Every structure is written in structure tokens, then in C-alpha cells.
Amino acid sequence: MSYQLSCVVCVPRAIWVQPTTNHSSSKSDRAQRIEYLTKIPRSVNLESLQNGYLFPEISMRESEYAQRNPHARLIRLGIGDTTQPIPDIITSAMAEQALALSTAKGYKGYGPEQGNRELRRAIAETLYQDMQVKENEIFVSDGAQCDISRVQMLLDASLSIALQDPTFPGYADSSVIVGRAGRLNAGNGKYKKIVYMECVAENNFFPNLSKTPRTDLIFFCSPNNPTGSAASRQQLEQLVKFAKANGSIIIYDSAYAAFISDESPKSIFEIPGAKEVAIEISSFSKFAGFTGVRLGWTVVPEELLYANGYPVIRDYDRIVCTCFNGASNIVQAGGLACLSPQGFQALKRTMGYYMENAKILVETFESMGLKVYGGKNGPYVWVHFPGLSSWQVFNQFLEKAAVVTIPGIGFGPAGEGYIRVSAFSHRESILEASRRFTKLI
Amino acid sequence: MSYQLSCVVCVPRAIWVQPTTNHSSSKSDRAQRIEYLTKIPRSVNLESLQNGYLFPEISMRESEYAQRNPHARLIRLGIGDTTQPIPDIITSAMAEQALALSTAKGYKGYGPEQGNRELRRAIAETLYQDMQVKENEIFVSDGAQCDISRVQMLLDASLSIALQDPTFPGYADSSVIVGRAGRLNAGNGKYKKIVYMECVAENNFFPNLSKTPRTDLIFFCSPNNPTGSAASRQQLEQLVKFAKANGSIIIYDSAYAAFISDESPKSIFEIPGAKEVAIEISSFSKFAGFTGVRLGWTVVPEELLYANGYPVIRDYDRIVCTCFNGASNIVQAGGLACLSPQGFQALKRTMGYYMENAKILVETFESMGLKVYGGKNGPYVWVHFPGLSSWQVFNQFLEKAAVVTIPGIGFGPAGEGYIRVSAFSHRESILEASRRFTKLI
């Protein structure tokens, strides 16, 4: 839906879209209220941003359904939000740190923007054993989504990019915001300046690099959101070789790496030579249930150099010091507890619970005769419905089973015909959703 | 100091500078190690960023001094970092929220990116009484510095800007990073595309707007960091009128507003009509001692419209949803406690302590026959040393009194001849520093 005001001369490129949040008001309301316009043009980049971020659109359909069906017991397997309590040992560490801030001895002000040394060291030693990642190459943050934007600010807006298709929409959206995506082609749902690397069942969810044109930057998420599929060692070796041959930088998102159950690498830095071509962004959100607590990190290796030999890490350090002020000290204390032997052990049990959920979902969809992917190395199940559009499937599941999923096309054009089902839920919801799905046949 | 590698063809504009952090290694080390360069050019914007961020430079001089004088008792009145414990009522709320995350009932995942409704409402009701600021216009964040960058991402890179001179360096630095500052003129220390609005004793620290050229954006900090001076109601009325006549947007930083002791406005939104021309960024860092805890907010009024009538708030909402994922839920619980009657009362006592420090500093410098500004509406004291350079004064205070301050020129060319002294310290340090300063005469 679009609308415009009689008092405004509409610039053609400014298509007014339905707001996705609660900032709207009726046409007549607004027309009466507007008394003054600044002379500031809207950012060309923000104007290019596709109408409606995926999740608000889903929320809207969900709310509409709930209004029409006030007694339905809705099950939400859409957004990848954790549901299980955080182990005591971790929350106790945060509570203790919070209380210490009320004491003369325990009070702390600004910490290093890059994160507390202890936590940086623990990340290096626990999660990057044998990969020669040093603590000073780790920048602690308030989460992967925030770091994706900081990496976007780091790199020149003129650089070209490639993305997996489908993948997490934040890479494309933040690329649009910094101006490297070009205009949206409404016909195929693709931004004109982005190279989409198709990852579908036919190519085992890994792009055909021999047909992929060179770009300056390559965003790569493994295990991938939404397909739940982790790239193998051999595939990542190909990816590093490809980047190296092209002089590209890989921005590798390993937010789901802790869920990997087979031999697939948990970090791009398991691949020899990757430190010369890759930045890795990761997060405590999913493996530690920190989605609302907010903690992540980014690894920028010293070996990663611009064409003129200048180390990328120095510019990233400037970005972090200028545009960020460090993650909360309370939360960092929690991060440290996550990486203690006891904390990590407790978190493995929670991850096991989610992966058992994923197994139940996989079995359910397989029993329905569907092709199912993911769910083994990542907490998402990716189900194929050939011949149907993914919004059709989404609507069917919502209307007939009162289950919220995510239409695959929300993650890119190649997600058409698929839906993503999240295993981050309570067991009883997963079991009930499975019963409802099975009844649909 | 600059250095370069023999194996690298040095692009002329790429001047290699001494790193400001610990990522450096010796020349021979690096030369041996470099085996591969990507083909990615360094961002033109980051190349334009002035060598050495102020605070790392000060740290370096401080460390050098400490090495030369291992027994000196250094007093740090430089960086504006809080030192007093946070009241129990606030840390208890955070501890309680942390522990609740270990329970099935109390666990929470992602919160709204814009902040929890309760906190947004409390900010609106407590800090924006009678200003018609609505809760949905408040975006809770992890701090003002982070929000400055998000506002920079919001607004088109081609827009022109004006800054107070002197002021917090983050406005200029983040402007450079997004590409709206142009090149640095090494001769006068100014970026070519920035309009510097001189704020010195002669104009009562408020710019002469009749001589200020029109810009699209105006960053304005009040009480200003570093001068400690708050703009009066009449001055802010002039500023709003000026912005309105020019169709500009004011980005108003009120991070120190809670320290105001006279009738100066605590928010730009106390000025009628400001909602049509201003965004306000603020923070819990200073008034609640949250520098390491991380919490802030930004107000984007619904009435603020681009030239084409599109509401700025909708784009800011997209920025927040795409580039940020909300402030920590534990920290937000602390923010809510800060705004409770008891919490706010306790914080007032801490602010009173810092302002008593400021009074001691003002009296000390006045007793030395110096012209002293600030210290009444803000926790910074701004001392004038006509005829001396501010780095000279900095060095004198460091070498002869073992006190770290900040040279005024670090905040802009018009800060030359001044130093900033922070009142955010322990009382005994303030008293000891005062004794040492007095002895210098």
C-alpha cells in the first residue's frame, strides 16, 4: 500500500510505503498535522531498501491471523529466537558482576572498546585452538548483526559483493544502506549490483564458483541461515582458493558454528591461508541463548591486508573505537562464564535439546514425503515444496495448522519453494506442530 | 612516524601511520611475514581520518611518562570516565534480571530492537515531561557514541555538516568515516567540507549564527564536551530558528543534560518547534555511571520530515532493525531502575559529588589567576592559558604535577590554548591534583 500527502510534491523515486512499525497514523491525521518540511533529501540508499523487512511482514500476517482466530493456539517456529533458560553458572557470573558495580572496589567504567582482555583470550583459546588466532585479533561486540554493519562501514562503499542465495537478509540490507547494492530489480527480487550465488539442493547448497564472477567482497554464512547446511572442509578450501585468486575478502558468518555435529569446519580459519583473505563474525546469541543479552565478536587477522599493504585490522580498530564503545561489562562477564569448562558443558546440553527438536522436525517432514535439508549441523530445517510459492506454504501452515514458519523467498530468490522451520522452540511446541503438520496430509 | 614495506608499491595517498593500538610489530617482522595482498583498496574515507584518535595519543604520552617515572602517583583527570559505584537499587535490578534468565518463566530472547516498552515509556515520562515526546519516538541503544554512527548511516553521505568548535571528536570522526567531511587540511586542522562554528569565551561559547553558513546537518552538544557550558533557552531558540530558516536537521547531544544546575534546557525539545528540526541523542553513561554498562537512547520525532515529506523516524527504525539488535535486556532493567524515584534520587547524590569536584577544580584554577569556564552545568572544567599551546600545558601538567588532562586542541582548532579537566574522579584525587596545581605557580 502506498499513500501520499496533498501538501507534498512527490519526488518520483520516493515511493511511500506502509510502515512496518507502529509509527503510522491515518492519512487524514498526518495531512492535518504536517506544518513544516526540512530541506533534507531522504538518503538514496534507504530509498533503495526493499519494502518491508522480512520479520515485520511475518509479524503482521501473524497478528492478522490471531485477530481472526482469537482462540487458536499459535506455535511460532519462525524467527530464530532461543527459548531455553541460560545455565545458572552464566547468569550468576553476570549477576555478580552487576552487583560488584555497586562497590568501590568492583566499580568499572569504560573498558577497552575491543573487549576485555580475559574474554578475548578465552575466545581465542577455546574457540580457535590450533588456528593461530591471537587475542588481539578478536574484537568483542554486542552481536553479529551490529558487527555486519561495522564491517560494512569499514569497507569502501564502491566495492562489489556476492552473497549466498538464499541467506540471512541482513547482508543485503546493510549493503543497501551503505550504498553498494544498487537498485532493486522488482522483476527478480535482486539488487542490481549484488552477485547472487545460488545455493540449492541441486548444488548441495554450495555455490558453483566456476560460474561466479569476481567480486571484491564475499559474504558467506556457514552453517547457513536459512538452509541449516554447513560447508565441508573441501568446499571451504575451494572458497578460500577462489577468494585468493580474485584478491577478494570473505566476510564469514559463523554464528551457528557451535551446532555443527560432523567434521565440517567451525571456523573459516581452519582452512590454511584463510587469515589472508577472511574476516569472521560470530555470536553468543544462538549457542548461549544470548539473543536478548547481546554479545558477539569479530576476528580480523593481522595477515589480512589491503592492496597497498595496509593492515585491515588497524582500520577495523578505528571503526570500533569511533563507532562503538565496547560490549557491556556485565555481559562480557557472562561470555567468559560461557567459555569456562562447566559453562560450555551446560550449553552443549541446551544445544543438544534444540538439535533433538530439529531431528523431530526433519522426521516429521520426511514422513510427509517431503525433501528436507538442514537440521543436522544447524538448528534450522529447510523444506522443499516444489511447485508451490513459499508464501503459499507459509499461509497454508498458518491458516491450517496455526504454525508460523518463514517463507524461503524472504532469504533470497533461490529460497522460492522452500520454507524455514526453526528448532529453537520448546519441545512440546515442536511435538504439537509435528502432529498438526502430519494431519495436513 | 611512518614506515613502509619494501615489498609493497606504496599508493601515494596511503601514508602508513604508527598504529594507535597493540597491533603493531617491528618493521623487519612484518616484512618477513607478508606473503599475500588482497586486491581491495583501503576505504578513501578511512584514509582521510586524522592520524591518531585523541585518547590513544594521550594514553601513549601517559605510558611514556609512567615508564620514565615509575614511582610517580599519576592522577587521571583526562578521559571523562565515571568512578563512583552505581547505587544498589540499580545493580540489584540488573542482577535480578540476569538470574531470571536462568528460569523457564523469566527467560527472554530477542526484545524489540527499539527497546523495551517499559523503558521507552519511563524515559518519555521521566525525562521528557511536558515536551510531548512519545514513547515510540524513543529508540533505546547501547550508548550515544554508537547512536552517532547510526544517525550518520541514516543520513545521505552527500549532506553538509556544521560542528561546534571545540566539541567531542566523535562527530567529526564519524563524519569522515561516512564520507561527508572531505580531506583534512593539515595547516589548520580542519576537514575541508565541515563548517566549524567557533565557541570560545569571547562569544560565550555559543556560535555566531549570523556568520554561520547554511549546512544540511548541525551537530550540537549541550552541555558541551569539552567546555562544560550549557546553551541557554534563548540561545537554543536561536539555534532552532536558524535550523528552521535553513531547512537543516539538528543532531543534538544531551549526554550531560542531567548535570545542568541552572535554568538551561535539558533537552532541545523544550524549545517550541524543535520536534520539526531535531534528533536528540542521549546516554545513561555519565549520569548513571553506565560508561561500562552501556545504555543510551535517541529521540526521533514523528514531526521530523525529509524534504519530500517522508518521516525520518521510519528510516531510523529501519536502521535500528537492520544494523542493531537492541540493548541488552539486563542493562535495560538497570535503566528502568535508574528512572525510578529512588534510583534517580540516588543518582542525584552521585552527580552532586562530581559537581562538588568540579567546584573544587574551578576554585583552584581561579585561585591561580586563570580564566575558568564550565564546571557549573557540566562535569568538565575548561581552563584558558592564553599564549600557550594546549599540548604544552598538557605536558607541563603531566611532567610537573603528574596529572593527566586533555589538551583543548584535541576537540577542535578553537580549543587551542585551553585544557579540559574532568571532574569524574575520586574526591581525594581531585584534592591532591588541586594541591599540585597550586604549587606550580
**Gross morphology of chain A:** globular
The CATH class designation of the largest domain in chain A is: Alpha Beta
Give, in order, the helices and strands of chain A. HHHEHHEHEHEEEEHEEEHHHEEHEEEH
Number of domains as seen in the coordinates of chain A: 2
Approximate helicity band of chain A: 25-40%
How would you sum up the major sheet of chain A?
Answer: 7 strands, mixed
Q: Pick out the low-confidence regions of chain A.
A: 1-29
Q: Give me the CATH superfamily of the largest domain in chain A.
A: Type I PLP-dependent aspartate aminotransferase-like (Major domain)
CATH architecture designation of the largest domain in chain A: 3-Layer(aba) Sandwich
Structural class of chain A: alpha/beta
The number of helical segments of chain A is 13
> Widest sheet of chain A: strand order?
2-10-9-8-7-3-6
Output the radius of gyration of chain A. 23 Å
Strand content of chain A: 5-15%
What is the typical, i.e. mean, pLDDT of chain A? 92
Indicate the CATH topology of the largest domain in chain A.
Answer: Aspartate Aminotransferase, domain 2
How many strand units of chain A? 15
- Most extensive contact: A-B, 123 and 123 residues
What assembly state would you assign to the polypeptide chains in this entry?
Answer: homodimer
Distance between the termini of chain A: 35 Å
